[in-house]
Amino acid sequence: MNNRDPFIAGIVRNWLINEMSQISEDCWCAEWMSGLEDALWNAVLNLPNDFQYGQDTVSAERIARIRDASEWIGEWIIYQMFQGRTPVPLDEWKRGEWRKS
Q: Which residues, including other chains, have CB under 8 Å from residue 12's CB and lie 6 or more apart?
């Protein structure tokens, strides 16, 4: 968590969860579209371009805010059956290690 204040990190984490979910709602009318975390990560990797997703376009600025929040807390959000929206350490996400568990 990068030695951040846990209270502030929790607020940023909740914002990130809600923003990712809102993008899914805006683009697919779904609370958490299957594969959302991968699609948004691809958008992060393709900055500074806007991102066409579902029925809408997500601005590069919005994707940059997601990237910045994720980097600040050192986490990425995934959806897991039975656990729901789950933070994973960003370094594990980047290496794909979270998929092994």
A: 4, 69, 72, 73
